[in-house]
Amino acid sequence: MWQRLKEEFSCIFDRDPAAQSYFEIFTTYPGVHAILAHRFSHRLWNFGLKWPARFISTLARWWTGIEIHPGARIGKRFFIDHGMGVVIGETAVIGDDCTLYHGVTLGGTSWKKGKRHPTLGNGVVVGAGAKILGPITIADGARIGSNSVVLKSVPAGATVVGIPGHVVSTDRQAQEARRQAIASKLRFDAYGLTPDMPDPVAHAINHMLDHIQALDEQIEALKRALKQQGIGVSEAPLPELEHCELKTGEEK
After folding, report:
1. What 3-state class would DSSP assign to 143?
2. What is the CATH code for 2-170?
3. pTM across the whole model
4. At what angle do helices 200-228 and 172-185 cross, to 10 degrees?
5. Phi, psi (rounded to 5 degrees) for 130
6. pLDDT in 10s for each residue of the chain, 252 residues
7. Residue 97: exposed, middle, or buried by beta-carbon count in 10 A (0-12, 13-18, 19+)?
8. How far, CA to CA in Å, does 223 sit from each of 73, 82, 238, 240?
9. Pairing relationship of beta strands 166-169 and 159-161 according to DSSP bridges
10. How far is CA 130 from CA 64, 87, 150, 208, 252, in A?
């Protein structure tokens, strides 16, 4: 029993730097209390004991401020940080290693029976106040920005922001690597390279780096086409950037 609980909640140390000990987690984290109550109420629900399951989930809501319908299916190592105001509907499905912050709603858009709540893949992170509505799928590794309203399915690894939610990046690792490479080429300390950041300056820098990379690719393609036609292309070295190096941190 202890080993199962340890596996279930050891992930909290990685996702919450404020966590100090297992004792603190088990005694003071409302998200943990809500999940433990849900594990029990979900078993009762599956055994056909509908009213006792709902009653336990209601007690857990009063105690934690987190409402999880006992019919919801939740995977391993699920973490609700802070938790107040979280609502998870009856037909919601949540994969392993997911994280939800306070004020998140996994809700429905229809009164019809059947599947009407979202499905979250593995490793999904949903920011504070976000609403994911309807029988849509948020694929593995997706990130939902704070206060976003998501009404359509989201591909794996994507980042979604806004109302209504729209994808601002897919394949974050590859995009990050490309931006880091072009930033290094420009000798630029690009503090804003993380695509999840809402900072408008970082957003502008990211698009500037993407634009530079696209221009480089177009120039290389033109040079190859000219060489195939027998037209020589002089390749003058690019000027050094030592005297115009951009800094975004403190002066060194």
Report:
1. strand
2. 2.160.10.10
3. 0.64
4. 80
5. -70, 150
6. 667 777 777 888 888 888 888 888 888 999 999 999 999 999 999 999 999 999 999 999 999 999 999 999 999 999 998 889 999 999 999 999 999 999 999 999 888 888 999 999 999 999 999 999 999 999 998 999 889 999 999 988 888 888 888 888 665 555 566 656 655 555 554 443 444 545 555 566 666 777 777 787 888 888 888 888 888 777 766 655 444 444 444 443
7. buried
8. 56, 56, 15, 22
9. antiparallel
10. 19, 11, 8, 29, 40
- Give which of 60, 86, 88, 58 is closest to 74, Cα–Cα: 88
CB proximity list for 80: less than 8 A, separation 6 or greater? 30, 31, 34, 35, 66, 86, 99, 100, 101
Going 152 to 117 to 106 to 3, the CA torsion angle's sign is negative
Token pair recorded at residue 220: 């290389």
Half-sphere exposure of 14 (CA within 13 A, CB side): 11
d(CA 23, CA 20): 8
Contact 110, 125 (CB under 8 A): no
Can you name the residues that pair with 89 across neighbouring β-strands? none
